[in-house]
Amino acid sequence: MPTKERLYLFDTTLRDGAQTNGVDFTVADKLRVLSLLDRLGVDYVEAGYPGANPTDTQLFAEKHEAKARLTAFGMTKRPGRSASNDPGVAALLAAHSDAICFVAKSSAYQVRVALETTKEENLASIRESVEAAIAAGREALVDCEHFFDGFKEDRDFALACARTAYEAGARWVVLCDTNGGTLPHEVEAIVAEVVKVVPGTNVGIHAHNDTEQAVANSLAAVRAGARQIQGTLNGLGERCGNANLCSLIPTLLLKKDYAARFDIGVGEEALGELVHVSRTLDEMLNRAPDRHAPYVGESAFATKAGIHASAILKDPATYEHIAPEKVGNRRRVMVSDQAGRSNVLSELERLGVPVDKKDPRISRLLEEVKEREALGYSYEAADASFALLARRMLGSVPDYFAVERFKVNVERRYNAQGELVTVAEAIVKVKVDDETMISAAEGNGPVNALDVALRKDLGKYQPFISGLHLTDYRVRVLNGGTEAVTRVLIESADETGDRWTTVGVSPNIIDASFEALLDSITWKLLKEGAPA
Questions:
Q1: What DSSP assignment string belongs to 319-387?
Q2: What angle do CA 380, 383, 388 make, to 5 degrees?
Q3: Which class in CATH covers the domain with range 5-266?
Q4: Strand, helix or coil for residue 153
Q5: Tens-place pLDDT, residues 254-269
Q6: Burial, 467: exposed, middle or buried (Cβ in 10 Å; 0-12, 13-18, 19+)?
Q7: Residue 239, C-beta contacts closer than 8 angstroms, at least 6 positions apart
Q8: Could you give the 3-state DSSP secondary structure of residue 67?
Q9: Disulfide check for 19: which of 238, 295, 444, 511 has CB 3.0–4.6 Å away?
Q10: Helix (H, G, I), strand (E, B) or coil at 160
């Protein structure tokens, strides 16, 4: 059996990914993500830009144990001064890192307009910066910014930048599609030219996703000879993001054209944690996971058409390009108004609802789903609400508690500091057995106040819901006018990491939200086996 070629993964979630609008990592966040990346088995982690901001400066002030090569990012020396007299280079050399990635212009236009210097001085900056890093005992990488546009403009100069970095001793010469506008066939052709002057075992690709081509461009570069891929978890990054490692890793491991040829250092066990890693990052950033993301999205292996569901149950490979379990995902055969018996039976089996396939109530349940979806309910995205509906029709769901009434008040007023604030207050009266509890709470909105009040005191059931919390809230107005119907989907999670979604429908958004909240708590109690 031929020896596989080594393909290296360079993760820049903590540096390039941190440029995503709304993303802000603390030092603790960065160390946690570093741990996740170590579990995956990436080779390099670019953790930040020391000297550029207090967080990154603090991170690199201490040495951190990691399997991956911790990499500091920064500029090559400025034109007109030596590397030893450049504060940016000094900050990189002082950082506790295994490697340094210098960003360097490789476009003649950028050198002339942005740096306002000469081609010769730019090449000297690349050469002297790399030599300074190597002299300090660091592995050097050069990220050739604007490389593909620069190559199209001035082929010889772009190649000179790459060659200079390599000849100075750079371990990796990384070709960056900075504006994300290059297409796969162009990437493959240009990288093929680069590897004629720099060995492919020293060439990397850094693709941005502005034309939705970053993953394709990365694979095109590998086909042409590049042996390092730079990307981020969940495709984070400025503008439209970077090449998504959550798509690239399983493609390289599971698609035979790549799996038979390359070793990427990520094992089968680590691949099985990919969904967990992806969603952990989203939770840290308080972002809702992309449900339609390849491989790791909730809908990546989902179908709701009855004829497709039947085929999937007989032969999963019919509509699934890989087994979802390989990346830690699962198959979802959704229940909706387009569903057939196969969808219902498959979902009941997954949810652990015992049922006889010949039970005539299955057909009635399917009809009930279709009738309710005509009213505005959506069970394809609300698995817990569907499970409760099914259990009520096919068996029973305990009446754990009864809500006798609730009240919500929203008031805009001046607080003690004279600031104008809006405060939501909720009161909920609940009966558990023969005991009545009245709870009040404030929240940053009426739904939040209701949620806090409802979960504040459920008597004997309080221990069962202590780890329950809401993770996502989505509202859709189904028709306009004075008789508008509102659908609310609430995603909940608990201390075990389990997630589930419930639905509520009403002309009143508060009423719809409360219905979804009730289902969420009831599902949690049922899941925990709480006594009736």
A1: T-SS-GGGGT---EE--STT--HHHHHHHHHHTT----TT-THHHHHHHHHHHHHHHT---SS-HHHHH
A2: 125
A3: alpha beta
A4: helix
A5: 999 999 999 999 999 9
A6: middle
A7: 180, 208, 209, 210
A8: coil
A9: 238
A10: helix
Residue with tokens 């390092």: 228
What's the rounded Cα separation, in Å, for the pair 230 and 251? 15
Residue type at 484? A
How far apart are alpha carbons 103 and 92 in whole angstroms? 12
First to last CA, the chain: 61
Q: Where are the domains of the chain?
A: 5-266, 302-394, 402-527
What is the arrangement of strands in the sheet containing 469-477, beginning at the earlier edge strand? Answer: 469-477, 486-493, 499-506
Q: Are 250 and 322 in contact (CB under 8 A)?
A: yes
Q: Which amino acid is at 242?
A: N
R_g of the chain, CA atoms, integer Å: 28
pLDDT-derived band of residue 413, with 50, 70 and 90 as boundaries? confident
159-217 pLDDT per residue, tens: 999 999 999 999 999 999 999 999 999 999 999 999 999 999 999 999 999 999 999 99
- pLDDT grade, residue 337 (50/70/90)? very low
The first and second tokens of residue 27, run together, are 């030092």
Per 3-state DSSP, what percentage of the chain is helix, strand, and coil (rounded to 5)? 40, 20, 35
In sequence order, what are the residues at sequence separation of 6 or more whose Cβ sits closer than 8 angstroms to the Cβ of residue 152? none
Q: How far is CA 353 from the centre of its chain?
A: 31
- Three-class SS of residue 508? coil
What is the length of the chain?
Answer: 532
For residue 461, give every residue at least 6 positions away whose Cβ sits within 8 Å of its Cβ, in sequence order, or none: 400, 401, 432, 525, 530
**CA dist list (Å): 312 to 140, 305, 335, 417:** 49, 11, 14, 61
- Taking domain 402-527, whether its CATH number is 3.30.160.270 is answered by yes
